[in-house]
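W.,

You were right to be curious about this one. When I first looked at the sequence I had no strong expectations either way, so I just let the prediction run and decided to look at it fresh. Below is the sequence, 278 residues in total, followed by the output.
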Amino acid sequence: MQNLRDKLLKAGLVSEDQAKKSETSAPAPRRSPPAQTPRQEASAPRRDDRPPRRDDRPPRRDDRPPRRDDRPPRRDDRPPHREGGGGGRPQHGRPAATAAERPIPKLPPLPGSKEYQRIESKKQLELDRALRELVMGAQVPSEPGETAFYFMTRKGRLRRLELSQAQAKQLEDGALGVVERPEPAQIEHALVPAATAEQMFALSKKAVRFLNRKENPIGFMSDDDVKTQQAAEAAGTAPEIADEPEADEGAAAGTTESAAPTTEGGTPEGGGTEPQAQ
């Protein structure tokens, strides 16, 4: 079998001199590298045949002048955040006051002082106004009659009303009640429906003088109690009950003392105890 050189010479494609030159200048055959074991491959350094990356971009030059900020630096007055929510948030741009800087709460005035009396007098006036509005809005006119009805005032004095049998029966059944109507100079008494009496009792227990409730009747007196009180008042031995403060007897009253002594006078317009016929 002829090789490639003889075929080219025979075909006249190359001359004999050209064939000799090609033989002398032909490169040596490339030998494949010997096979490596897996251990040699793992320990051999990795060759990166990629050419190094060339960054032909010129360095950036910032010829701009530095920016001048004429604004004053911002001051952060907020206190550092503390775990547990102990730090307060500043209000109106002011830092929260520390425990030492907080104002001491104002103590209530001492009982007996002028400020205490002024506050209590104001509370009592507000209570009297609220009670009077309730009475004036629901007062039931008394019906004069031959039935005597007795009730006890807050001063411990017996009062008698001359009512009709119908109104006396309403008092016995608990449909009506006898309450106080505070006036600027004195305390009057009036008949009101039981619902109004309950509202007044929530504000001031002493304002309700009689209300025959099914449970816990208010101001009820038996015939013997009435006779005993009448005899004591006739002999001048009936004790007078002091008008003590009404403590925790209503939201409007609070713990109040009477602002000024009031007298119970005039013609009573209502009452409460057991009816007594005469």
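Here's what jumped out at me. Strands lie at 147-152, 158-163, 176-182, 187-193, 208-210, 246-247, 255-256, 275-277. And, maybe more interesting for your project: The first strand starts at residue 147 and ends at 152.

Coffee later to discuss?

I.
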